[in-house]
Amino acid sequence: MLGFLKEPVVVTAEINVNLVALTLMGLISRLWGLCYPRAVVFDEVYYGQFVSLYMKRIFFVDDSGPPFGHMLLALGGYLGGFDGNFLWNRIGAEYSMNVPVWSLRLLPALAGALCVPLAYQILVELHFSHCAALGAALLILLENSLITQSRFMLLESILIFFILLAVLSYLKFYNLKKHSAFSGSWWFWLLLTGVACSCAVGVKYMGLFTYMLLLAAAGLHFWHMIGDQNLSNVSLLCHFLARGLALIIIPMGLYLSFFYVHLALLYRSGPHDQIMTSAFQASLEGGLARITQGQPLEVAYGSQITLRNVLGKPMQCWLHSHTNTYPIRYENGRGSSHQQQVTCYPFKDVNNWWIVKDPGMQQLVVSNPPRPVRHGHIVQLVHGITTRYLNTHDVAAPLSPHSQEVSCYIDYNISMPAQNLWRVEIVNRESDTDVWKTILSEVRFVHVNTSAVLKASGLSGASLPEWGYRQLEVVGEKLSKGYHQSMVWNVEEHRYGKSQEQKEREVELHSPTQMDISKNLSFMAKFTELQWKILTLKNEDTEHKYSSSALDWITMDTNIAYWLHPTSGAQIHLLGNVATWASANAAALAYLCLSLWYLLRRRRRIYDIPEDAWQLWMSAGGICGGGWAVNYLPFFLMEKTLFLYHYLPAVTFQILLIPVVLQHLSDHLCRSVLLKSMFSALTVAWFSWVYFVYCTFSPVTYGQPALSLTELKALRWKDSWNILIRKQ
After folding, report:
1. 619-663, pLDDT tens digit by residue?
2. Does the pLDDT value for residue 378 go beyond 90?
3. Nearest-CA neighbor of 29 among 134, 142, 145?
4. Is the Cα dihedral 86, 92, 97, 99 positive or negative?
5. What is the CATH number of domain 296-512?
6. Where would you find this protein in the cell (predicted)?
7. Which part of the chain has CATH 2.80.10.50?
């Protein structure tokens, strides 16, 4: 029974020495001197702020993309024991001793290093020779721009890693499908494709480009499977469901999980809260939650409320009034009603309080039991401090003459009666009998007499002149002009009014209330709001010294100075390997010309290369050339400030195309032994040129050694490059 113990247990393993060597070289090139410089480098000033907020659990919104990449950077800080205490306010600022620089830069560096063996494996899975795969990996290894970008607390190297991992996983899955369908390895690579795609999108939305490319490839391959008569309908259905699960459902679920973890970590109120809705703010610890905790949930007749405009950008504001009136005549000669001003005020103030009144009753307190206000009910809104009624009439607004002026009514005993009835419409109601709820309900106020809707028009235009204290205009907008978030309001602060006398009520308005009613927001509601803010919130784009156009990237007519030593000439630049970039452009052009030539010849039934070589040529072009196109061409449609690092995912795919074209030329165009020998010699000479350029620009890739004035001037190979030369 124990006879198997008589023989030794032997484990054998196959080790790809090429892969191991490439991985080690990648690690050395990216990790060497990782702590240098011990100062803030370019966009570390931007991402470092988010890392600090993660360490302190303070909520933030970054309009540049989803949170997964930020969380990975924060993970580095967490593993290094970072407490978040550093002022990220200046590029070049020296890091204090509490900042674990090596740990913060580690994950981007590891991701960049692993891109080298990934490039090798992608070429192997595309069925190119190991020599071509080795060439692709070495080109990625010696690409100065990729080295620079991966050695700092930046996201591009992480993005490229997940993109390449997704491509490799799909190729491995595709190469297994004929012989090992639904096996363990088949499922592993298919699922890993979806996971890697989701991670790429979770780092930056640029990952969507490669995700769409792989979905298109999967769709094309499945279309070909449909024509395979050897597959039954049940088998095809299983293949379809497996791809849908792995490439759509699981990535969506994983993408949601990134936000779930993000929101679970950032539970404290912070400076970014103000762009979120009141309900979202109230779900965070501190901030608005301290004010709104325990407020009555249902708005009733007699409720004292503040009304916040839902739009919340470019700033949050509350419905407001004060004793000042509109001027009798405006600067342009138009007349006004001379009624009490109503504005939208971007600060909390006692004049933001309003009382919800039943038009059929005089009391301004909540009855016992309270009578809740429902969708469709008619109310009057009474300004808490001045006790005047919110009113609008057929008088042009001060800044928006095509809209109605909104005021608090003053009876001047003239032929302008009060028109102060408003219908409450709950926009996000579930039924027509919904109760108006604090924070949760988004409502419109429709004027009964004119059907105008209360709107904070100042959020999209200029503020009022000096007579309006530069506050934001509020108007009555006709419903026929369509729906906009500036027409929607929600109750932020709320109490049940108890005092009928004005003096007592004023004291009440100044006093906070506490009642135990919870208003927790579901994860999906928070996710939907945060996702919408990320997609729609755009910082004002300004021209940057190192911004560039997409056309500049092809010929590398631009660079970015990342860091300059305060005393010596040492500096770091984002600059690509000129030899590699020029060769990548030449390879892309050669691929396009050869493909067009082959297509024309094939149309005439002239086949210059075997069918299997043609399929190999097209599949490699679809992945490498397609990857370059989908990651580059969309930038021509984007209205945003662009930088050279946006081109790095695209140029990575373009670099992979170089060995594809070289092997094709060697295999199919160099027919004789002499031509093959000459071509090999030229390839070695060309690669020596690539290595020479890498070595030449290494001082500005790694920031050391410091170069002299003459050496710096010698690196300025193009007049458009901004090499920093310190004045003597």
Report:
1. 999 999 999 999 999 999 988 889 999 999 999 999 999 999 999
2. yes
3. 142
4. positive
5. 2.80.10.50
6. Endoplasmic reticulum membrane
7. 296-512
